[in-house]
Structures are given as C-alpha cells and as structure tokens.
C-alpha cells in the first residue's frame, strides 16, 4: 500500500481540517512525523487504520469510540484517505460521523464509502471490505504496514500457534492445506472403486473357456444352416416358375375382359373427338372477334356518358367565371383605397398609446407623492430602532459587570460536586464497612458457639478421621474372622463320606470340625461398623460446613481490609480536596450561598441573553425597515424616470400622426379607440383577402375552362374512331360465317357456349387410344408366350406347402447361428471390458493407497505448519541481514523446533537464549529487522513500483551509535524502492531526515500540520 493523501477533521486534537500530501514525502524515501508528546502524531496512523478498517488500537466499540475520537469542539469528524493498493490501483475511503444536535454525547454511527479511480472518475464500490482491497487483515496490517505504539514487538512475542496463523494469512499458506482436497479425492476414488467392484460382479460368467465352447457350437449350427439353405433354394426355384405361369394365365384373362370394356367405350370416344374438332375451329375463328366487338361497344357507351358529363361541367365553370368577374369589379375601388386605410390604422394606434400614456403619467405622479410620504415615515421608524438598540446595549454592559465568570462557576461547581460525591462515597463506604464488621462478628460467634478454633481446626479434623478409620479397621478384621468361621461351618456341614472335599479333594472325613453359630456375632459387628461410618459421615458434613464458614470469614476479613483501605483513601481525597479550595468569593462550607450566587449569575446571563435576543430582533427589524426604505426610494426614482419617458413618448407619437387629428379623438376612451382600430384592421384585412381570393379563383377557372374544352374535343374524336372499329369488326365476323359455312351468329354463340375443356378432353382421347392399342398388343404377346404351356393347380399347392416347411427349417437354423454368433460377440466384448475394468480396478487400488499416504501427510494441517516453518526460517534469515549489522555481529536470530524465536549470542560461545532476555534497545532492533523482512516478504508480489512501511516508536531506546546504524538501514531502504515513515519526538532524528511533518498543538485551533 502506498499512501497518497490524508484529510482529517474533528478527530482527536485535529479540530480544523488538515490535509497531508504524501507525494513529496514518498519521493524522499525516508520521512518523519515529529511533535511534542500529545501533539497528535500517532493520531495520523490511527486515522489511516480507522478509515480503512473501522478499528483503532486505543479504543474499541465498548469505549464509546466515536464519542471519544471526536474533538470536543467539533460536531463532525471526517477522514478521507487516498492510496494505491498491492495491485497498483488507486482507491479512496471516507469515514464521517456526526454529533447529535440534541445530545452532546450521542454520536451517530460512522458512514463509510470506498471509491476506485476509473476512467478519470471516483466510482463508489458496492462494499467496504478493506481486506479485499489492501490484501491484509487489520491485525496483519498493523504488523506489516503501520505499526502503532506498543505493538512493535508483537510479532516476536506471538505464540507459535498465533504466529503460524498469521503466516497462513499473510503468505496465503491456506493453499497448502490439502487435507480437504485429499479427503474429497479419497471419497471420490472409494466411490469409483465400489462402483467398479459392483460392475465386475456382473462379469462372473465371462471367460475364454465359455467363448471356445460357443464357437464349437457355432460350427455345427452353420453346417445345418447350409444343408437347409440348399433344400430351400431347389423348392423355391420350382415354386417361382409355377407362380410365374399362374400370374401370366390370370393376366391374359384379365386383359381380355378389359379389352371388351374398351370396345364398348370406343363409339363415345369417337363422338367426343368430332365435337372437339368443331369447337376448336369455331373458337379459333370467332371467339376473339366476339370479345373485341363487346369491348368496343362498352368503350363507346363509356365515352358517350363521359362526353355528356364534361359538357355539363363546362357550362357550370363558365357560369362561376361570370360571377367572380362581377365580384372583382365591385371590390376593386375599396382595394385601391387600402394604402390610405393603412395610414389611418397607424394613426389610431398612436392615438390609443397617447391616451394610455397620459393616464399613466397621472398615475405615476400620484404614486410618487404617496411614496415620498411613506419614505419619511420609515426613516422615523429607523431612527427610533437605532436609539432602542443603543439603550439596550448599555443595559447589557451594565449587567455583564455584575456577572461571575463562567469558568469560575464551573470550577467551583466541580469542586462542590466532587466534595458531595466523596462525602456520599464516604457514607456508603462506612456503611459497607459496618456491614462487613457485622458479618464477620456473626460468623465468629457461630464458630465460638460450635467451639471451633480456626487455627487448629484442620488438625482436629484429621485426628478424629484417623480415630474413625482405626475403629473401622479393627471392626472389619473381627468381621472377616467371623465370616471365615461361618464359611468353614458351612463346608463341614455339607461333608459326607464318599463325596470329595471341596477344599482338599479327600473322599474320607474322619474328624469333621465342629463350630458354633457366629451369625449373631456378625450382625453385631456389622452394626458397629455402620454406626462408626455414620458418625464419620456426619462429622465430614459438619467439617465441610465449618470450612465454608471459615472460608467465608476469611473472605469477609480480606474484603473488610480492602474496603477499610478504600475508606482511608476517601478520607485523604477529602482532605486534599478541601486544601484545593482557592476561591475567596465563596465559602467552602456554604453550598447554598454558592447555589444562590450561581443562580444570580445565571439569571443575569438569561437577562443578557433576552436583551441580546431583543437586540437581534430589533436589528432584524431595522435591517428590514432600511431595506424597505431603500426599495421605496428606488421605486420613486423609477416612477420619475417612467413619467419622463412616457411624456416623451406622448410627444413623439403626436408628431407621428399622418392623416388623423388627435383633437378629434380627445374625448374618446382608450378602449373606444382600440375598438375603432380593430374594426378598421378587420375591414382592411377582409378587403385585401377577398380581392386576392377572387383573383386566384378567376385565374383558376379561366385555365380550367380551356382544359375542359380541349378534353371534350379529344373525347369526340375518340368516340368516332370507336364507332368505325365496331363496323369493321362486324364486317369481318359476317365474312367468316360464310367461309365456315355457319348459318348465323346465334349458331356460333351456341357452339362457344359449350365451353369445352379442350386440354382435358384431348388428353382423355389420347390416353384411351394408347391404352386400347397397348392392351391389344399385350394380349397377342401373352397368347404367343403361353401357346405350349400348362398350369397344374394341385402341384402348385403341394410346392407351396413344401416351401413353407423348408423356409421354417431354414429360419430356425439361421436364428440358431445368429444367436450363437451374437452370444460369442457379447461374451468377447464383455471379456475385453472385464480386462479393462480389472486394469482400472488395480489403478484405483493403487490410488487409494497413495491417497491414504497423502491423507496421513496432510492430516491436522501438518504440511501447512511445515511450510509455515520454512517461510518463518526464510523470514528469520532475511531479518538477520539487518539484525547482525545493527548488533555489530554480536547477535543473530534463529527459529527453534517449536517455531519460537531464539537469539544466538556470539559473545557467549554462540549459545542460544530467549528473545525476552534482550534489552529494550535490542528488542527494538530485532523487531525492526523482522518487521522490515516481514513487510518485504508480504509485498514481494505487489504490482506497485514502491512499498511502504511506518514505525511509531523505539528510537528513544537506542544509543548514538545504534541510532546511526538504524538510520543508515532505514535510509538504504530508499535504494530498494521502499518508503519508510517514522514517528518520534527524538530531536536528533529530525535534523537527519530530509523531509518531515511538524505537528503543533494550540488551545484555539487544535493540532496543525506543517511540512518542514
């Protein structure tokens, strides 16, 4: 991440908006932020982390973070931070939170928006996840980019588990956590293995032996098939010859029957042929002549009707032409007088304006007179308001002299509040102590009544428990003795001659032991044991209760001691508070007097506020009155200007009159003149429009009449030509009647009305003729072919039966061969599939073994921890390059088997020791080396040309020589395209760093930033 610009306002001590432009600082490679303690140096880093992540090192959400971060003099806190991320993309983040106007300590939740610079515009993002943009979580951002105060040594002091987790996130080591992937692969492989074994169970019958047996069977069935096929072919050939004879004899008889039907149809076909020839000859000669004659007659009728219509239209046009010509002659004198009428229009317009301007001048004079009176009244009100304001301001000054300073009242009020609070705490504490005393006394009395000595109680308990145990042991021994006697008596009672003894196996029993019955003794001893155990249990319960009381007593005594110390502390605080009362105008023992003076001062304040409010109202009224007076004065000036302008316009309009005299219209109103003007305009416009329209109609009708005359003449010529054509068509028709030897026109029409479909009839005749001749030839050919042949029907039926038998036997033989062949093919394919499945099964089993090995390897994230240790060792080696130089080759860093850091001390024979044994300065050196190495590793894959690192502590722990080494190390980072910013109050560093920010804090403006 590379910072570009940071803007802060209303955050901690930054009251006013301050902006840091990091570009010059970044170009320098090494820069500093300096200022006195509490000036706001670390707040810059906190502003960056809070802007990005909404988290801070000093405060969390439970600490009322928003309220405590906001400057107490501000109502708004604002942060804007521009930066390049690890992909060298430019982003901006803004966070803003505001104070509730009604409740000072209520701060509204911050609003955060992330933007990206795309196509020269800031485009808002749909999320506020800084980790997605920066590539680091908040904790790792603090460890690798910006390290706040108190966190510099965190990395080396992290436990192995937390450090490994951090390495996982920073270096994205989760990609090496392959246990889940191996588990998925193993599950998938196991599923495939089970499925494959299930498939193989269906291949049990598949073997080479079964395939060979089927091939032998196939050879036998193929031999039978060949024999059956030979018999079938001989029978089929003879049957086909008989079928052919049968078909030919049947065909000959059918064709003869069909030929007889054709002979019956032939006369009708011949008649159709004759009729078709007559129809075609008449159609060809007369049809077109009839169509042309009918068409010509129709055109003659149409032309005759159109000629009559056109002649009627011509008469109508000539009549309209005469009417329009008369109207033009009547309107022409008025049209010629239009120029004079137009001048009258202009004069009437001027006269109407003169009359209106005269009325306006009178109105303006009246308004000017009224306005001057109003201005005078307002000026009197303004003077009165100014006098009232001066008097009220004097009253405020007199009241202010009687006030007590607000800071004094606040300080004295705080003192009394603290006193009352301490006195209240004293009373409560005293009550608490008395209560504890009562509790302690109560428990002591209870212990005393039980005759318990707290100091010897545990020893007494032990002695009594030992007594109980000894008694139980003695009684138990007696009980066991009696139990043995009872068992022996039982054995003796059950001994009989000839039966084996259960103890020694002897069959003879010469002297059988005689014992008394001990059942009563057993019961007495058992009752004594139960009584001892009951006493012991009761005493244990009693001892536990006493222990609880003793424990409670000890707790109350400790609590009383602490509370007594608290009471003494409150007493000291009250004494110190009384000693700090320095205000001579007040009595430390008279709180009511303070309240009275405070109330009096507050009353004065309210009076001053009321008078200030009154002054504000009067000033507001004064300002409004002054604005009103100014408005009236401007209006008066405008009235006078308008009056002069309108008088000038009246004179100008009088001089513009051409044909009318204003004196003739002096007694008319403006409305009457405007009505005359509108009437004259309407008459003139109508005259002009009518004259123009009549002329247009005159010209149009004149042209229209000429066109109609030409059209009539053309139609008369066309009609004469059509009559001539009709006569020629009739002459040709009569001539053709003679040539075709037809009686009259009606006969022609009768023949044409047949409307024969010549194509269909001709096709029918041709098809009949061809079919007739073809059938006759076929009959002759069949008679010749069958001249010496004879068909035996009984022999034909016998061959049909033989054919069916042979066909059935051949079909059965063929099916047997086909089935056997198919079975061989199926078993062969299945055998090949089985071999492939066995190969796959072997592969899956081997894969299962490999996955089991991998599962053990990646189990429990062991491989990730191994990779993490490698990264950690590499990080340690990189850090040692700088750490050895800083320690003058006296110390180096290493990682032990538990992934914890150790220091190798070369001044003590290279022995190792804990990093916690390092001094403060050495801890800073090793932390700085590791932090630089870590940040360098994290940002190795960054696309940015430079990388950034911030340090906020540590330089005060170094001696002069160490400071030189550290400074040289940081300065050399610039050559490695690294940028380092340091925060410090060490003045020696300030002189050696080329560019820095100086933070100064003032009471009035808060923290201010300056580039030095």
How would you summarize this macromolecular structure in one to three sentences?
With 1012 residues, this protein is α/β, with parallel strands linked by helices.
Principal-axis shape equals: flat
Strand order in space, largest sheet: 2-1-4-5-6-7
Q: Describe the main β-sheet briefly.
A: 6 strands, antiparallel
The DSSP helix count reads 22
Counted beta strands:
15
**Unreliable segments (pLDDT under 50, ≥5 consecutive)?**
none
- Give the terminus-to-terminus CA distance: 24 Å
Mean pLDDT: 81
> Could you say which structural class the secondary elements and strand pairing correspond to?
alpha/beta
Approximate helicity band: over 70%
Strand content: 5-15%
Rg: 66 Å
Notes on the protein architecture:
The structure is a single chain. This protein is α/β, with parallel strands linked by helices. The protein is built from 22 helices and 15 strands. The strands form 3 sheets. A 6-stranded antiparallel sheet has the order 2-1-4-5-6-7. Strands 8-12-13-3-14-15 form a 6-stranded mixed sheet, with helices on both faces. The chain is flat, with a radius of gyration of 66 Å. The two termini are 24 Å apart.
């Amino acid at each position: 991440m590379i910072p570009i610009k940071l803007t802060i306002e209303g955050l901690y001590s930054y009251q006013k908006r301050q902006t840091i432009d990091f570009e010059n600082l970044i170009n320098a490679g090494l820069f500093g932020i300096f200022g006195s303690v509490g000036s706001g140096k670390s707040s810059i880093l906190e502003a960056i982390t809070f802007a990005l992540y909404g988290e801070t090192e000093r405060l969390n959400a439970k600490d009322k973070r928003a309220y405590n971060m906001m400057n107490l003099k501000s109502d708004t806190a604002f942060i804007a931070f521009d930066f390049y991320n690890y992909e060298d993309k430019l982003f901006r983040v803004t966070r803003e939170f505001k104070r509730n106007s009604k409740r000072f300590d209520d701060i509204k939740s911050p609003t955060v928006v992330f933007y990206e610079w795309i196509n020269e515009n800031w485009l808002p993002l749909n999320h506020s996840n800084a980790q997605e943009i920066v590539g680091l979580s908040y904790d790792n951002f603090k460890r690798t980019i910006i390290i706040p105060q108190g966190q510099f040594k965190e990395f080396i002091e992290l436990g192995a588990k937390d450090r490994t987790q951090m390495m996982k996130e920073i270096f994205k080591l989760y990609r090496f956590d392959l246990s889940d992937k191996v588990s998925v692969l193993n599950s998938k492989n196991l599923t495939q293995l089970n499925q494959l074994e299930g498939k193989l169970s269906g291949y049990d019958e598949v073997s080479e032996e079964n395939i060979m047996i089927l091939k032998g069977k196939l050879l036998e069935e193929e031999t039978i098939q060949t024999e059956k096929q030979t018999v079938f072919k001989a029978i089929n050939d003879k049957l086909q010859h008989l079928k052919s004879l049968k078909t030919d004899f049947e065909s000959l008889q059918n064709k003869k029957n069909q030929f007889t039907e054709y002979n019956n149809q032939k006369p009708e076909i011949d008649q159709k042929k004759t009729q078709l020839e007559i129809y075609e000859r008449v159609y060809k000669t007369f049809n077109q002549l009839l169509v042309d004659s009918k068409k010509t007659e129709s055109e003659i009728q149409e032309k005759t009707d159109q000629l009559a219509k056109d002649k009627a239209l011509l008469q109508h046009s000539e009549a309209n032409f005469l009417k329009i010509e008369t109207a033009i002659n009547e309107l022409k004198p008025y049209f010629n007088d239009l120029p004079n009428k137009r001048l009258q229009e202009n004069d009437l317009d001027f006269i109407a304006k003169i009359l209106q301007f005269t009325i306006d001048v009178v109105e303006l004079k009246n308004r000017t007179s009224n306005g001057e009176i109003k201005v005078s009244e307002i000026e009197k009100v303004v003077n009165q308001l100014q006098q009232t304001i001066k008097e009220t301001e004097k009253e405020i000054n007199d009241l202010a002299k009687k006030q007590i300073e607000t800071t004094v009242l606040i300080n004295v009020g705080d003192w009394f509040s603290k006193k009352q609070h301490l006195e209240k705490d004293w009373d409560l504490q005293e009550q608490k102590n008395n209560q504890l005393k009562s509790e302690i006394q109560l428990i002591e009395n209870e212990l005393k009544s039980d005759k318990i000595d707290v100091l010897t109680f545990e020893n007494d308990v032990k002695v009594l428990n030992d007594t109980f145990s000894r008694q139980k042991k003695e009684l138990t021994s007696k009980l066991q003795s009696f139990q043995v006697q009872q068992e022996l008596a039982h054995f003796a009672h059950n001994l009989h001659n000839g039966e084996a003894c259960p103890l020694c196996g002897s069959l003879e029993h010469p002297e059988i032991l005689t014992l008394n019955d001990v059942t009563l003794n057993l019961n007495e001893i058992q009752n004594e044991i139960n009584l001892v155990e009951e006493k012991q249990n009761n005493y244990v319960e009693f001892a536990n209760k006493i222990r609880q009381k003793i424990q409670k007593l000890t707790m109350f005594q400790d609590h009383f001691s602490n509370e007594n110390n608290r009471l003494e502390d409150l007493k000291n605080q009250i004494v110190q508070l009384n000693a700090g009362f320095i205000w001579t105008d007040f009595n430390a023992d008279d709180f009511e007097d303070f309240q009275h003076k405070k109330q009096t001062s507050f009353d004065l304040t309210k009076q001053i506020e009321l008078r200030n409010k009154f002054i504000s109202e009067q000033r507001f009224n004064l300002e409004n009155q002054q604005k009103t007076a100014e408005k009236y004065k401007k209006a008066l000036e405008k009235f006078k200007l308008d009056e002069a302008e309108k008088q000038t316009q009246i004179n100008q309009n009088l001089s513009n009159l051409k044909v009318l005299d204003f004196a003739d219209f002096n007694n008319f109103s403006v409305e009457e003149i405007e009505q005359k003007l509108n009437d004259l305009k309407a008459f003139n416009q109508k005259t002009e429009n009518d004259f123009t329209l009549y002329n247009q109609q005159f010209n149009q009708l004149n042209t229209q009449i000429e066109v109609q005359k030409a059209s009539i003449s053309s139609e008369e010529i066309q009609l004469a030509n059509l009559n001539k054509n009709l006569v020629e068509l009739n002459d040709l028709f009569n001539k053709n009647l003679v040539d075709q030897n037809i009686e009259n026109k009606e006969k022609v029409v009768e023949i044409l009305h047949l409307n024969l479909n010549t194509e269909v009839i001709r096709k029918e005749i041709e098809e009949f003729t061809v079919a007739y001749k073809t059938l006759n030839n076929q009959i002759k050919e069949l008679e010749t072919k069958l001249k010496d042949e004879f068909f035996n029907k009984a022999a034909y039926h016998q061959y049909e039966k033989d054919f069916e038998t042979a066909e059935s036997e051949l079909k059965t033989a063929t099916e047997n061969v086909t089935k056997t062949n198919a079975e061989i093919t199926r078993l062969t394919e299945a055998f090949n599939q089985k071999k492939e499945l066995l190969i796959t099964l072997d592969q899956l089993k081997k894969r299962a073994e490999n996955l089991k090995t991998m599962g053990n390897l990646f189990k429990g994230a062991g491989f990730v921890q191994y990779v993490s240790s490698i990264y950690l060792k590499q990080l340690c080696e990189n850090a040692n390059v700088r750490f050895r130089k800083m320690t003058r080759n006296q110390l180096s860093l290493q990682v032990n088997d538990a992934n914890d850091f150790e220091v190798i001390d070369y001044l003590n024979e290279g022995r190792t020791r804990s990093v916690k044994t390092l001094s403060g300065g050495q801890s800073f050196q090793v932390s700085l080396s590791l932090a630089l190495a870590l940040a360098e590793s994290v940002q190795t894959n960054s696309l940015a040309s430079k990388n950034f690192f911030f340090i906020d502590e540590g330089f005060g722990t170094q001696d002069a020589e160490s400071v030189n080494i550290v400074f040289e190390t940081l300065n050399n980072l610039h050559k490695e395209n690294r940028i380092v910013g340091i925060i410090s109050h060490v003045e020696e560093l300030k002189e050696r760093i080329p560019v820095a920010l100086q933070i100064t804090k003032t009471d009035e403006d808060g923290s201010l930033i300056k580039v030095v």
